[in-house]
Amino acid sequence: MPEPVTQTLDVPGATLTYDVRGDLSNRPVLLMIGSPMGASGFPTLASYFEDRTVVTYDPRGVERSVRAGEPTELSPDDHAADLAALIDHLDVGPVDLFASSGGAVNALALAAQRPDLINKLVAHEPPLAGIVPDREAALAVVEDMYQTYQRDGMGAGMAKFIAFVGFEGEVPSDYAQRPAPDPAMFGLPTDDDGSRNDALLGQNLRGCTTYLPDFDALQKVADRLVLAAGEESGNQLAARGARAVADRLGLTPVTFPSNHGGFLGNEYGQPGKPAEFAAKLREVLT
C-alpha cells in the first residue's frame, strides 16, 4: 500500500486534514470515514485495498482537523458539506464510500444532498436513535449522557456512553434513571478537568443520534446504498439504526463480520476481524 500523502483543505470554520493513498486518477476512489473517528482508525482496513486509491480524513474538530472559534455542536449536515467540499476539491466524484458509525449518518446526509458524488455507499451501523421504535427512550438516554457530560465532565459522560452502546434490545423507558456507571470501571477519570470540547460527547453526540434522514431523497438513490450491521452487534442501537434505514428504503440489510468496530486492526487496542470485514466490503462494492 502506498504511504499516505497528507494535505489540508480550508472550509468555512475549519481546516480539514486528509490523507491520500495511491493515484487519484484510479477511479472510483474509495473514501473511508467515521465520526468522531478520524483517519487514524482506518490504516488496517485501507491496507486490504492496495488496488484502490483510498482517501481518509479527520472530521472537523477531530485530531488534525482544527475548528475556528468555540467548539459548538455539529450536525450531519455540517459534516456532509465538508465531505462534499473534500470530494469536489479532489475532483474525484462519484466515489465509493465506506462510512461507519457517525460517519454513516453523515454519509447518508451527503447521499441525500449530493447524490452526484456517490457511486456506492456502504453505511455501517449508523446510530440513528431518532428512527427506531423506542426512539423516545433512546433519545432520553442520549440527552442524559450529554447533560451528564456538561455537568460532571468527560469521565462521567463517557462511562454512560460506553455502557449504553453495548445495550441489547429496545431501550426501557426508565433506562436514564438507572444508577450511573462508575467511570473507573472503564479506566476513565473520575475527576472533572473542566474541559467541554470532547469531539464525541460535546460536539457530535446529539446532532448525530437525533438526525432524521431525508428518506424521500435517499429512496431515489437506494440502488447505490448498502446498509450494514455487524454479526456480533445483535440488537445494539447502531445495528438497529442500520436495519431501520434499510426497512424504510425497502432494502435488505447486509451482515458484516464482527461488531461495531469490526474493520479495526490494533489501532485502538480492540481489534475486530479486518481481513474478513475487508473481504465483505470488497464484495458489496463490486
What does this molecule look like?
With 286 residues, the protein is an alpha/beta fold. The protein has helices at 43-47, 76-90, 102-113, 135-152, 154-165, 199-209, 215-219, 237-249, 274-285; strands at residues 5-11, 14-21, 30-33, 54-58, 66-67, 95-100, 118-124, 225-230, 254-256. Strands 1, 2, 3, 4, 5, 6, 7, 8 and 9 form a nine-stranded mixed sheet that branches. The model has no long low-confidence stretch (mean pLDDT 97).
Most strands sheet = 9 strands, mixed
The general outline is: globular
Class from secondary-structure proportions:
alpha/beta
Structure annotation, total helices: 9
DSSP strand count: 9
Order of helices and strands: EEEHEEHEHEHHHHEHEH
Mean pLDDT: 97
How far is the first residue's CA from the last residue's CA? 20 Å
Low-confidence stretches: none
The Rg value, from CA coordinates, equals 18 Å
Oligomeric grouping of the chains: single chain
Proportion in helices: 25-40%
Strand content: 15-25%
Mind sketching the topology for me?
Elements: E1 5-11, E2 14-21, E3 30-33, H1 43-47, E4 54-58, E5 66-67, H2 76-90, E6 95-100, H3 102-113, E7 118-124, H4 135-152, H5 154-165, H6 199-209, H7 215-219, E8 225-230, H8 237-249, E9 254-256, H9 274-285
Parallel strand pairs: 3-4, 3-6, 6-7, 7-8, 8-9
Antiparallel strand pairs: 1-2, 2-4, 2-5
Helix pairs in contact: 2-3, 4-5, 4-6
